[in-house]
Amino acid sequence: MSVLDNFQEWKNFLAERVDQAKGMGMNANTISDLAYQLGDYLAKDIDPQNDQERLLKDLWSVADENEQRVMAGLMVKLVDDGKK
């Protein structure tokens, strides 16, 4: 099963990657930049596997770059806050 098949699995996967990045000493800005790059790749090249991913892709497609960066930062915050 792919991490994209289930939104909770995707959030868990992203949370693990954020933890790894922090463990490597990356700061919040670098992590947000990487999340933006990942979001852009997913929006352009990957077909959404569930309703939540479809919504994120649709929002991404109408957002300008600054709004996309905010969305990426919010996804990082979502998974980071979810561990508390």
UniProtKB/TrEMBL annotation:
<dbReference type="InterPro" id="IPR021637">
    <property type="entry name" value="DUF3243"/>
</dbReference>
<dbReference type="Pfam" id="PF11588">
    <property type="entry name" value="DUF3243"/>
</dbReference>
<dbReference type="InterPro" id="IPR024702">
    <property type="entry name" value="Uncharacterised_YmfJ"/>
</dbReference>
<protein>
    <submittedName>
        <fullName>DUF3243 domain-containing protein</fullName>
    </submittedName>
</protein>
<dbReference type="InterPro" id="IPR038292">
    <property type="entry name" value="YmfJ/YflH_sf"/>
</dbReference>
